[in-house]
Structure formats: C-alpha cells, structure tokens
Amino acid sequence: MKAILADRFQLQNYPITQLLNFMAWFKRQAGELDTSGEKKVRTEGLWVKCDDCRQIIWKKDLEENLNVCPKCDKHFRIDARARLAQLLDDNLYEVFDSNLVSTDPLKFVDLKAYSSRLKRAQADTGLKDAVINARGKLNGRPVIVSAMEYAFIGGSMGAVVGEAITRAIEQATDTKAPIIIVSASGGARMMEGVISLMQLAKISAALARLDEAKIPYISVLTDPTTGGVTASFAMLGDLNIAEPGALIGFAGPRVIEQTIRQKLPQGFQRSEFLLEHGMLDAVVPRKQLKPYIARALEFMAA
C-alpha cells in the first residue's frame, strides 16, 4: 500500500511531506476524543414510578403535587423537613434540641455495630436522630411540631427520640402552644433494649401533664406508623389524623396471621380500615392536612 501510494505521489510530483501527511490519515491518533461540544442528556432520577397504578411520573410534577400521585392519589413517603415545610407558614421555623445523640448504651452488634448504623444514618440524613423538633406558626398560630424521619433507621424510637419528643411536649406545656406530632416509624429501637421501651411510658406521662394543662395535641399518623410508637403517643392525641393508605398498627400483618391462624381482612391496618373501625378520627389527604389542622386548632384552642 505504501509503495503504491509512493509511486502515485512521485508520478504526480507531490512533495514527500505531503505524502507523510496523507499517510497520517490512516493511523490512529493518540489522545482522548474531545466531547466537550456534545450534548449530554441525563434522565436518571427525573422520573418516579408509582407502585400502585404503575404510572411514570415526572419528579418535578410529583413534588409540586406534594408527593401525591396525580393519577391514583397514592401518598408517597416524605421526609421530616418536607413535613415541616408543608405544615408551617412560609417554611419558617426554629429547630430545638437537635444536639441530642445516642450513646449506644448496650454497645449492640448484630450484622453491624449499632454505632456504625448511627453514623451512617447521620451522614445520610444530616440529622442526629430520627426526629426534628420545631417552633413555628400554622396559619398564624404558634405551634410546636415534632416530625419523625423514617430514613433514620426506620424512624425507630430510641432514647434520643423519646427525650426529644418529651422535651417538645414539655415546651408546649410551658408555653401553652398546641403540639403536633407527625409519626413515621417502625417502632421502638430494639438496639437500645429496654431503654427504648421506657420511652413509651415517658412520653405518655408527659402527654398526661399536657392534657391536665388543657393544651391541644394533634397526632398525625403517616405511612408507616407501627410498633411502640402506635402503642404510645401516636394514638393518644386529642385528634388522631392519618394520611390515606397509611400502614398503622402494632405488629405486622404477617405476624398476626401466624399468631391467630386466620386470614386478615382486605386493607387491614390501613388508615381507611382503622377509621371505619373507630381507631382514628379522620383520614385527611395531604393537600388538605394543613387547613384541616388549622380549623381543628381554632375549635380546640378557642
């Protein structure tokens, strides 16, 4: 090939430098391709699939709809900060008691050390534990809100969560401000053993003092609210409200079926089933939750 090209260039009296430049066209050039001018399209994380109706939803549209499916009204789980933003005026609030940290009293280890689980959850959520206490206003009325964070070890209730919620209740008692507790939890945090179970009684005692002071307490149960949280403060509200389709109960359906050896009814432990059987006062869609609570407080705190 080179000989043929050389003869052709000699016959046509081309200079040798032009021949070399021509030959370079056949060689692979070193270095990476310049792709700076290429248009990159990234779609990862921009779409969400609804588990109920299988609809593919543009994530921005879902967020604008308060993370509720526009087709079937499935209420997606949201984090504690989103809860506060939806409930409190202009997303303005003051966080308190956010420096409480678990001491890992049992030095517990299963598949992982409990201390490692705590560090990972703290890094992932930016929180010290599974609850945020905040002071703010709801339709102009000063309120205290404790919002649980399910992404922090399943929203489990250990010593820190119990102490933080107790302090929020005590602040409500001292300041005469209504308190709203938004539950999203897998129950007591058993990595802390009996210490986690003690929180049920501690919070319940604080709520008893709140009741004696005639300060309103509204409990909002979201998906999921289970275990010791359901067995204590989540069901002790002056008004117990749940979001549509929320899983609410003490033990899971599978455990109950294995215990009683019977098939459970359709929709068992969902908020609509509990409302029908007198365990809840109302099931309120997320879009209507803030005005519903505001009207309730007007009546309760009058």
pLDDT average, as an integer? 90
Query: How many strands?
Result: 10
Looking at CATH, the homologous superfamily of the largest domain is 2-enoyl-CoA Hydratase, Chain A, domain 1
User: Hey, roughly how much beta strand do the residues contain?
Assistant: 15-25%
Give the CA-CA distance, first to last residue: 98 Å
The percentage helix is 25-40%
Roughly how many Å is the radius of gyration?
30 Å
- Output the helix-strand order: HHEEHHEHEEHEHEHEEHHEH
Mind telling me the CATH class of the largest domain?
Answer: Alpha Beta
**CATH architectural group of the largest domain:** Alpha-Beta Complex
Largest sheet: 8 strands, mixed
For this structure, the CATH topology of the largest domain is 2-enoyl-CoA Hydratase, Chain A, domain 1
Q: How many DSSP H or I helices?
A: 11
Number of domains: 2
Any low-confidence stretches, pLDDT <50, length ≥5? none
Overall spatial form: globular
User: Based on helices, strands and strand pairing, what is the structural class?
Assistant: alpha/beta
Descriptive account of the structure:
By secondary structure, this protein is an alpha/beta fold. The protein has 2 domains: 43-76, no CATH class; 77-300, 2-enoyl-CoA Hydratase, Chain A, domain 1. 38% of the residues lie in helices and 17% in strands. The protein contains 11 helices and 10 strands. The chain has helices spanning 2-11, 16-24, 59-64, 80-87, 114-125, 159-175, 194-212, 227-230, 253-260, 271-276, 286-300; strands at residues 47-49, 56-58, 93-96, 131-138, 141-148, 179-185, 217-226, 239-242, 248-249, 282-283. Strands 3, 4, 5, 6, 7, 8, 9 and 10 form an 8-stranded mixed β-sheet that branches. Helix 6 (159-175) packs parallel to helix 7. It is globular. The N and C termini lie far apart (98 Å).
